[in-house]
Design goal:
homodimer; 542 residues; mainly beta; Cytochrome Bc1 Complex, Chain D, domain 2; four-stranded antiparallel beta sheet; 7 helices; 39% strand; globular; Nitrite reductase (chains A, B); signal (chains A, B); Host-pathogen_enzymatic-act (chains A, B); heme (chains A, B)
C-alpha cells in the first residue's frame, strides 16, 4: 500500500502536515479512481463533509457514509443527493462543487475511508513559534485606542481575524490565523483566579488545528505574537480563569491539548476517544466545544459523539482530574447562565439542552427543546414571569426556545420551557445584552435568500417579534451572528459574502440597539463570522 | 476481505466470541499462509505472545513485532528466536510449541496484525448470568467450616478456582472460571465504607475477560453464583470498599468496566486508550492492574502502556471523576502500604517503583530499583533501622529491593532504598506476614530447574537469607507464590506442573512459618498459581 498525504497539506493550509502519511485503501473491485483524484477528493471531503459526517464517515450531525451503506445507493443516486441535498437536512452542493467534483465525491464515499494520522505532543512542540519574545511584550497599550471596545472578528474564508475599533469603526488589522477559524476567545474575569490584564490576549483556533495568540496592546501589524498547531481538524479553544493555560479541542485526532498561555507550548494532551451514552466505543469522539468555568478552576470540554461533558480541573496537570458527566449526543455549543455556575449546551441530535452544574461537577438537567438546538454565544435575560431565562435558536426549525435558569430563586421555573418564539427561519445564533430590551436571532439555515438575509428581533417584555431586519439584499449574501458593543448601545451583524467568499466583499452592519435603525456599514471584510467584543466577553455579558 | 473469527472462540474459551469478526489481512506478496493456519496461529499468538508483545504487536514488556521489523529478520532468524529465546528476556518456546507451530508463528508475525473487535456494554449485558438468584442467597454459611481461613486458589490451566479449607487442608471445590485466571479478589475491610459480610464474596477475572462471582457461604458445588464477560483479554479485578461494585480491566478492548457486585450487571465502561508520558497516542493501552483503595472511595487502575495511574472515584458513576496520575511505563502490579494511603506499583520497563498518594490523588514518588520489578502481592514489614518498609522481587534479576514507606514518622527513609537482598534467581512473588520473622521470595524466572523449584527466605532482623527451600524436585515443575494462613503460622507455596499442565498433578506445599519445615502437601491441583487467604486479604495482612 502506497502512502498518501492527508488532506490539508495539498493546499498548504496546515503546518507540518507534509510529514504525515496514511495508507491508500485497496482498490480491487468496486468503485475506484486514480491516486491523485483520491487525494484531491479526500481533501474536499475533509473540508466540506467531514464536519457533519466524520473523517471515518461513521456519521454524527450527518448520516453514516461508510461504503457498506453507500454502495447500496450507487453512483447516480449519490450524485443527486450531493447536488441537491435532502429533506433530512443535507445541504445542496451544486453551487459549491462542479459536476465532476460531485461525481468524484460520490465515488470516493463508496471507497474505504482512509484513517488520518495521529499527532504527538512532540509534533505539536515542533510547530510552536514565538513571533514576539515574552520579554518584548509591552507593559501598556502601544496605541491610544479604547481597546476594551475592540471587536475581534473571524474572517472565515480568508484565514484571518480582523481587529475593529468599536468606537471609530475602523478595521485596524487583519491577522493571519488558521484556516476557517471557528472561535476566538480571550481572557475573562474569574471568581477565584485572576488573569493579568483581562481581555488583552486573544486565542484563535483554526479548522486546521492552528492556534494563534493575539496581543491587543501591540500596534496593528504586530498583534500576532505566537502560534502552534494541536490537531489536523479542530473547533474550539478557551483560556483558564487565571490566564495561565489555553486549551483547544481536536476533531482529529480526537483529543484536547492544554498549552502554556504565554508561549503556546503544548503541555498536556488527553484523548477523548471512548464510549457513548449507550456504551458503544467511538474512535472519532470529537471535541465540539470548550469553555472556561467562571467560578471554578476548570475547563468544560464537550465531546460530541460520546455525549460526555468533561469538567477538567486545571490546577494540577500532572495529576489531572476530570469528571465525565454523562449527558446526550451530539453535544455542540453552549453558554453559561448569569451566575456562572450552570453551563447550558445543545445536544443537537437529541433535541435537548443539557445543563451542567460546574460547582458540583454533575448533570443538573436535560431540557427537551425542538429540532437541532444551536445557541451559538447564547442569550440570558430576565423574563417578567419566569425570572432569569436562557434561550436558543435551532438549526432545524424557525424557533427560539426560552427556559428558566435560576434554580435558587425560581425553582419552579428552572430548567423548564418558559415560552417559545416562532421566527421565519431556522437559525444559528441568538444574542442579547443586559441593557437591551430585545433579543436577536438570525435565520442563516433558511433556504430562501430573503429570510437568510434577515434577522429577527423580539421584545423581552411582550415576548413578540417587533422587527424583521433585512441586513442585506445582495445576491449570494447572508446575515448572521450578532454582538453588542461595550456599552450595549449597538448591535453588530455580520454579512457573509457566500458566493464571493475569497474576496473582502463582506461587511458588518451596525444597528442602534434601542431604535433598531442602521448606523453604519463596515466594509472590506472577507466572510465575517463570529465577532467578539473585548469588554462584553471578558465580563460575561451574555 | 473475508471475515475470520478472533482468537479464543476456536477453543471455546470465550463466551459470545462467535459473534465477533475481523478482517483477514491482505496476503498479496510477502510471507503468507492459509486462512485456517492464520486463524490457528493467531490464537496461539494471542494465548502465548500477546501478553508481552501486544495484540497489535506494538510491544510493551516484549519487543515491537510489527511486520516492518519482522520482515527484516526473516523466517529462519525468527524461528530461532522463538525456539530458543534471547538474552534480552524472551523465553524459549521449543518446549511449548512444535517445530511446525514455531514456523507458522514466524510467518504470522511477518504479516499485518489483525485488529480485534470492540465490545459494547450491551454485548457484556447479554453475557451476564445469575446461577443463583439474589433472593436465594443464604443468610449464614451453609457449611460448618471456618470459611475465614479458606484459600481461594487459581488453577490456571484448568480454568478453575479451587477452594481449600485452610484448617483441614481439604480441597472442597473446583469452580469453573474463565481461562487462565490471573487474579481473584474478595471484599475487604474499608476505612469509610462497609461491605456486608467482608470476605464472603470473591470475584475471578479470566484471561478471556470472563468474570465469575463466588459465594463462600454456599455449599461446595453451589459456590459459583454469577458470571459475565467484559473483554476478550483481561488481567485484573477489584471490589469497591462498600462491596457494591466490581471493576475489571481489559487488555483488549483497552477499557475498564464497573459492574454491580450483586448481579455482575455491567454498569459503566471507560476507555483507557490515550497518550503515554511522552505524549504519543497508544491504541492498545492495557489495564495491567486494578485495586481498591482501603481509605478512599476509589479504585486504582494502572494503565500499562500510558504510564497513567487512574484514581477512579466510584461514588457517582453518572458523573465519574478520574484523576490521571502521570508516572512511568510500563505499569504492572503493586500493593498498598500498611496505612492504606500509599499505593506502591512496579513500572517494570522503567525499573521503578511508583508510589501514589490516594489521599491527595497524586504522585508521591518514583523509586529507582533494579531490572523489571514485580512484587506480586507485595510485602510490608518493619525494619529495625528504616522503620516500615516495602519490598519487591524482580523479573530481570535475583534481587529483593527494600524501601522505606512511612513518610510521616520516618521521612528520611521514606521512598528511598533501605537495602537489597540478593537471591539465587529472578522471581515473581514476594510475601510476608506481620507475625512472621521472615520474608519469602520465589525464583520462578530463573532458567535452571533447581533454582526455579526453590524459594528463598530471609530474616527481617539480620536482612540475610536463612534458608533456601527446594519445594519440589520433580522434572517439569516449578515453585511460586507464597501465602500465609489466617493466624500467620503457615506458609503455602504453589507447585506448577508446567510440563503436564492439563492434569491435576500440581500441588501446594504447606510450611511451618516459624521452623520453616514442611507440614503438608495438598495434591490434586492443576497448575495452582495465586492463592488468596480470606482473612488475610480481607484485613490487608500484606
Amino acid at each position: 500500500m502506497k502512502k498518501l498525504k492527508f488532506g490539508l497539506s495539498a493546499i498548504g493550509l496546515a503546518v507540518g502536515m507534509a510529514a504525515t502519511g496514511l495508507s491508500l485503501p485497496a482498490f480491487a473491485g468496486g468503485p475506484t479512481m486514480s491516486e491523485k483524484d483520491f487525494e484531491e477528493t479526500n481533501l474536499k471531503y475533509f473540508q466540506r463533509c467531514a464536519g457533519c459526517h466524520g473523517v471515518l464517515r461513521k456519521g454524527a450531525t450527518g448520516k453514516n457514509l461508510e461504503p457498506k451503506n453507500m454502495l447500496k445507493k450507487g453512483q447516480a443516486r449519490l450524485e443527486k443527493i450531493i447536488s441537491y441535498g435532502t429533506e433530512g437536512g443535507m445541504n445542496n452542493f451544486d453551487d459549491i462543487f462542479s459536476k465532476d467534483e460531485i461525481s468524484k465525491l460520490a465515488t470516493y464515499i463508496q471507497m474505504e475511508p482512509p484513517v488520518p494520522p495521529e499527532m504527538s505532543l512532540d509534533q505539536m512542540k515542533a510547530l510552536t513559534k514565538q513571533f514576539v519574545p515574552l520579554k518584548d511584550y509591552p507593559t501598556k497599550p502601544l496605541h491610544g485606542r479604547n481597546w476594551e471596545n475592540f471587536f475581534v472578528v473571524i474572517e472565515r474564508d480568508a484565514g484571518k481575524a480582523a481587529i475593529i475599533d468599536g468606537d471609530t469603526k475602523e478595521v485596524i488589522d487583519h491577522i493571519d490565523t488558521g484556516y476557517a477559524v471557528h472561535v476566538i476567545k480571550g481572557t475573562e474575569h474569574h471568581k477565584k483566579d485572576h488573569a493579568k490584564d483581562v481581555g488583552r490576549f486573544w486565542y484563535t483556533i483554526g479548522r486546521d488545528g492552528k492556534v494563534n495568540k493575539i496581543d491587543l496592546w501591540q500596534k496593528p501589524g504586530k498583534m500576532l505574537v505566537a502560534e502552534t498547531q494541536m490537531a489536523y481538524d479542530a473547533r474550539d479553544i478557551a483560556v483558564s480563569g487565571d490566564g495561565k493555560y489555553v486549551i483547544a479541542g481536536g476533531y482529529w485526532p480526537a483529543h484536547f491539548v492544554i498549552m502554556d498561555a504565554e508561549t503556546l507550548e503544548p503541555l498536556k494532551v488527553v484523548s477523548t476517544r471512548g464510549y457513548n451514552t449507550k456504551g458503544e466505543y467511538i474512535n472519532e469522539a470529537r471535541v465540539a466545544a470548550i469553555y472556561t468555568a467562571p467560578n471554578e478552576s476548570a475547563f468544560i470540554v464537550a465531546v460530541k459523539e460520546t455525549g460526555k461533558m468533561l469538567q477538567v480541573d486545571y490546577t494540577d496537570l500532572d495529576n489531572l482530574t476530570i469528571t465525565a458527566i454523562e449527558s446526550a449526543e451530539f453535544l455542540h455549543d453552549g453558554f453559561f447562565d448569569p451566575t456562572g455556575r450552570y453551563f447550558q449546551i445543545a445536544a443537537n441530535a437529541s433535541n435537548k439542552m443539557v445543563v451542567v452544574d460546574t460547582k458540583d461537577a454533575k448533570l443538573e438537567k436535560m431540557i427537551d427543546v425542538d429540532k437541532l438546538p444551536h445557541p451559538g454565544p447564547g442569550a440570558n435575560w430576565i423574563d417578567e414571569k419566569c425570572g432569569p431565562v436562557g434561550g436558543t435558536t435551532h438549526l432545524g426549525v424557525g424557533l427560539v426556545s426560552v427556559w428558566g435558569n435560576d434554580p435558587i430563586n425560581h425553582p419552579d421555573q428552572a430548567w423548564k420551557l418558559c415560552y417559545e418564539v416562532e421566527t421565519d427561519g431556522a437559525g444559528v445564533f441568538i444574542r442579547t445584552h443586559e441593557k437591551s430590551d430585545y433579543v436577536w436571532a438570525d435565520q442563516l439555515k433558511h433556504p430562501e435568500p430573503e429570510v437568510q438575509q434577515s434577522v429577527q428581533v423580539f421584545d423581552k417584555k411582550t415576548r413578540e417579534i417587533v422587527k424583521t431586519i433585512r441586513v442585506t439584499e445582495e445576491e449570494g449574501k447572508a446575515a448572521l451572528h450578532m454582538e453588542f458593543n461595550q456599552d450595549g448601545t449597538e448591535v453588530w451583524v455580520s454579512v457573509w459574502n457566500r458566493a464571493d467568499a475569497k474576496n473582502p466583499t463582506g461587511e458588518i452592519v451596525v444597528y442602534d440597539a434601542k431604535t433598531l435603525k442602521e448606523k453604519k456599514r463596515i466594509k472590506g471584510l472577507t466572510t465575517p463570522t463570529g465577532k467578539f467584543n473585548v469588554f462584553n466577553r471578558a465580563n460575561h455579558k451574555t
